[in-house]
Design goal:
about 700 residues; 5-stranded mixed β-sheet; two-stranded antiparallel sheet; 29 helices; 7 strands; about 60% helix; globular
C-alpha cells in the first residue's frame, strides 16, 4: 500500500464514520425523547448496530473488505438521514421527563473537580501513548481475538475453514475490531480500540445515574471512577477484549428500559433501542447472552406486573426478536458448522459434549467456601471495595430500608438494588471454561455487575446524606474523591510520569500555564479557537504521523515480540526471522501466541490444528499435506517433571518431525526455545534456510 492509498483510505474511513454518526444523531434526536447523555448512549447503540449489521451481511457473502463495507455504511447513513426527514422534527424534548429524584448533592470547589478531571485525563493519555507504540501484546488478543479478525480480512468471509481457538464464541466485538483495522489492513490503531467504548460506557453510566436522580457531582464521581477500576486500568484498556463492550451494551439497554418505565404512554423508540442493545449483547459474548436474558425477563415481568396491555407486550417481544438477529447469526453459524449452537469444546466432539462442559464450569459451581473466598479476593483485586459495599447496601435496601425517603423513591431504590443482585446472579451463572480463578480473569466476566454495584454504592451514599448539612457533605465528597484515584494506583503513576520526569514536568508546567490563561473569561474564546485550529492541523497531518508510526512498528515487530514473549529470560528470534518469509502457511505447536506468526504485514498464513488429540504420526502428516502447510514452528512449553519441577520441553509433534528425517522436513531456523522446519514434500514459497552449526558452533 502506497502512502497515497493509505491517506485516501484514512480520510475516507473518517468520513464514513462521521456520516454514520451524523445519521445516528439525526435518527435518535428526533425519534425518542432523549436528554444529552441518553442521546449519546442511543447514538452508540445505533452506530454499533449499523457496523455489526453491515459487516455481518458483507462477511456472510464473502465480501468483507474496506470498499464493500464502506459503501454499505454510507448507504445506511443516507437511509437514516432520509428516513428522518420524513418524520416530525419536533419530537425531541431536551430536559427532564418522568418523575425524578431531586437532590443538589455535595458541591466541591471547581479546582477540586479540575484536579480530578486532569488526573483522570493524564491517566488515560498515558494509557493511550503506552498502547500506541508497541504491537498488541495482551494474551487473549494475540491468542484468538486478533487472529480471528486477520483470518476474516484475509479471506473476506466469516465462514473461514480455519480459525484460532474460541472461534465459536459470539464475535460482534471482533466485527467492530475488524472495522477498526480495515482501512490499514494492519494493527496500526488496534490498541486504541477500547477507548471509544469506554467513552460510550461513561455516557451510559452518566445517563443511568441521571435517571436515578443523582446530582451532577455524584455522576462525575461515577464516571471518573470507571477508568480507575483495577480491571480497567490493568487488563481491559489498551487491549482488544470484548468485556468492555458487554458492559456498555448492558448499561445502555438498562438505561433505556428504565427511561421507558418512567415515561407515560407508549415509547417504541426506547423499546427498540433497548432491543438493539440486547441483540448486540447476546452476540458479543456468552456471558452477554446470560445478562441479556436476565434483563429481558425482569423487564417483561415488570411490564406484566404494572398491568401493561397484551398489545404492548406483544409489540415489545417483536422488537426484541428483531434485535436478536444482530446476535443470533453467530449461534446459527456454529450450529451449521458443528451441530451445536452454544459451546463447542472441539468441533469434532460428539453432540452435547460442549453443553455438558459449559454446565459444569459455572463461576458459582461447584460452590464452596473456597470458591466464595476466591470470588471475594478477585473482586477486591479487580475492582476494589466499591462493588462489595454496593452489594451489601443493595441487600440492606431490599430487606429493610431505614432511609428517610418517600415511598415512591424507596420503591425505585429497591428496584435498582434488585437489579444489582440480579446481575450478580447472572455473573455467578456465567461459564468460565478455560479461565483461571484468580486475579482479574473472573471479574472481567462480572463487569456489568461491578458497574451496577458501583452505581448502587454512590446511590446509597446519596440516600444516607440526604439530611447532612452542606459543609459535612462537602468534606465527605472531598474525602471520597481521594478514593476515586486509589484503585488504579494513579497517584503513584502521576508521581512517576510527571513529578519525577523532566519531560513530564515541562508538560505539566505548559498545561498549567494554559489552564491559568483559560481561567480568565476573556481568554476562553481565543483558547477555543486555538483548540479548534489545532484539531484541524492534527487531522491534516495525521496521515504522515500514522504512516511513520506504522513503518516504525513494522521495523521493530520481531524485536518487540522477541523481548516480550520469552521463557525464563531467554529471548527467541523466531519472530524476527519470520519477517523474511512471504506467503508461507505456518503450523505452530507449543505456543498460544499465534498472532505474531502472521508477520508485521500479515504476509503469512496460519494453520490451526483443530484435532490436537490425534496421537498417530501418519494421520498428523496427512493433515499437514492435505492443508498444504509450508512451515512447522515449535515452541518450548513448560511441563511438570516427575519431581514436580517445571521443565522446558518440546511439544510432541517435534519428536514426530525428528523421526521423519530429512525426507519430509528440513530445518530452517533454530534457537534455544524455538525451531522452524520446512515441509519438503509440498509446493511452498521459498524459505530462508540457515546453518545450525553456524548458530551453535
Amino acid at each position: 500500500m502506497t502512502f497515497g492509498e493509505f491517506t485516501l483510505r484514512w480520510f475516507l474511513w473518517i468520513a464514513m464514520n462521521g456520516g454514520l454518526f451524523f445519521g445516528a444523531y439525526k435518527l435518535c434526536s428526533h425519534w425518542a425523547r432523549l436528554q444529552s447523555a441518553e442521546l449519546a448512549t442511543a447514538m452508540g447503540i445505533v452506530v454499533v448496530a449499523g457496523l455489526v449489521g453491515v459487516e455481518t451481511v458483507c462477511g456472510a457473502m464473502g465480501r468483507l473488505d474496506f470498499w464493500t463495507v464502506g459503501s454499505g455504511l454510507a448507504l445506511l447513513a443516507v437511509l437514516m438521514v432520509w428516513g428522518n426527514r420524513r418524520r416530525e422534527s419536533n419530537n425531541r424534548i431536551i430536559g427532564a421527563s418522568g418523575s425524578r429524584w431531586t437532590w443538589q448533592g455535595a458541591s466541591l470547589p471547581n479546582r477540586v473537580w479540575l484536579f480530578l478531571v486532569i488526573a483522570t485525563g493524564v491517566h488515560l493519555a498515558s494509557r493511550v501513548v503506552l498502547s500506541l507504540i508497541p504491537p498488541p501484546s495482551n494474551w487473549d488478543s494475540i491468542w484468538y481475538h486478533l487472529p480471528s479478525v486477520v483470518e476474516w480480512l484475509k479471506s473476506g468471509s466469516l465462514w473461514v475453514s480455519s480459525e484460532p481457538p474460541y472461534w465459536y464464541h459470539p464475535r460482534n466485538a471482533e466485527l467492530l475490531l475488524a472495522w477498526w483495522l480495515l482501512p490499514f489492513r494492519s494493527d496500526l490503531l488496534a490498541s486504541l480500540y477500547s477507548f471509544p467504548i469506554l467513552l460510550w460506557l461513561a455516557y451510559s453510566v452518566w445517563a443511568l445515574s441521571e435517571r436515578l436522580g443523582l446530582s451532577k457531582e455524584w455522576r462525575w464521581f461515577l464516571v471518573l471512577a470507571l477508568p480507575n477500576l483495577g480491571v480497567m486500568a490493568s487488563v481491559v484498556l489498551g487491549t482488544q477484549k470484548n468485556d468492555l463492550l458487554v458492559a456498555a451494551l448492558f448499561i445502555s439497554a438498562l438505561t433505556h428500559l428504565m427511561a421507558r418505565n418512567q415515561q407515560a404512554g407508549n415509547d417504541d423508540g426506547r423499546v427498540f433501542l433497548s432491543a438493539l442493545a440486547l441483540g448486540l449483547l447476546i452476540g458479543t459474548k456468552l456471558n452477554g447472552l446470560i445478562y441479556g436474558l436476565f434483563i429481558l425477563l425482569i423487564w417483561l415481568c415488570a411490564m406484566a406486573f404494572k398491568g401493561g396491555s397484551l398489545a404492548t407486550i406483544r409489540r415489545a417481544i417483536t422488537y426484541y426478536a428483531g434485535g436478536a438477529l444482530l446476535g443470533v447469526f453467530w449461534f446459527a453459524r456454529n450450529w451449521f458448522l458443528t451441530g451445536t449452537p452454544l459451546w463447542v469444546v472441539d468441533p469434532h466432539a460428539p453432540s452435547g459434549q460442549g453443553q455438558e462442559a459449559m454446565a459444569s464450569s459455572l463461576i458459582a459451581g461447584p460452590f464452596s467456601l473456597e470458591t466464595l473466598r476466591l470470588l471475594f479476593m478477585d473482586t477486591i483485586q479487580g475492582a476494589g471495595w466499591w462493588p462489595i459495599l454496593g452489594l451489601v447496601g443493595s441487600i440492606v435496601v431490599v430487606c429493610w430500608s431505614p432511609l428517610k425517603i418517600s415511598t415512591n423513591d424507596r420503591i425505585r431504590a429497591r428496584g435498582v438494588a434488585g437489579l444489582t443482585i440480579a446481575s450478580l446472579l447472572a455473573f455467578l451463572a456465567t461459564p468460565r471454561t478455560g479461565l483461571v480463578t484468580s486475579g482479574h480473569s473472573i471479574i472481567r466476566l462480572g463487569l456489568p455487575f461491578v458497574i451496577l454495584a458501583l452505581v448502587s454504592f454512590f446511590a446509597l451514599i446519596h440516600w444516607l446524606t440526604l439530611d447532612w448539612p452542606a459543609s459535612r457533605r462537602r468534606w465527605g465528597a472531598a474525602v471520597l474523591s481521594v478514593f476515586v484515584l486509589v484503585p488504579s494506583g494513579m497517584p503513584d503513576e502521576l508521581l512517576r510520569r510527571l513529578v519525577l520526569s523532566p519531560r513530564g514536568l515541562a508538560t505539566l508546567a505548559l498545561f498549567g500555564l494554559m489552564l491559568g490563561i483559560a481561567w480568565r473569561a476573556q481568554w476562553r474564546a481565543l483558547i477555543a479557537r486555538w483548540a479548534f485550529g489545532s484539531v484541524l492541523a492534527l487531522l491534516a497531518l495525521s496521515p504522515i504521523f500514522l504512516w511513520k508510526l506504522q513503518n516504525y512498528q513494522w521495523s521493530h515487530w520481531g524485536g518487540a515480540y522477541g523481548d516480550l514473549w520469552n521463557i525464563d529470560g531467554v529471548r527467541s528470534g523466531i519472530f524476527q526471522w519470520l519477517e523474511s518469509t512471504e506467503n508461507t502457511k505456518i503450523a505452530v505447536y507449543g505456543s498460544q501466541i499465534f498472532y505474531p506468526f502472521y508477520g508485521s504485514r500479515w504476509q503469512n498464513q496460519l494453520y490451526f490444528d483443530v484435532e490436537s488429540s490425534v496421537n498417530v504420526r501418519e494421520r498428523w502428516l496427512d493433515r499437514l499435506s492435505q492443508d498444504r502447510v509450508n512451515l512447522v514452528v515449535f515452541y518450548k512449553v513448560k511441563k511438570k517433571g516427575p519431581t514436580d519441577t517445571v521443565e522446558l520441553q518440546w511439544p510432541r509433534e517435534r519428536e514426530w518431525v525428528v523421526q521423519g528425517g530429512s525426507s519430509a522436513f528440513a530445518p530452517v531456523y533454530r534457537d534455544r526455545i524455538a525451531e522452524a522446519w520446512s515441509v519438503k514434500n509440498l509446493r511452498r514459497a521459498p524459505v530462508n534456510e540457515c546453518d545450525f552449526r553456524a548458530m551453535y558452533p
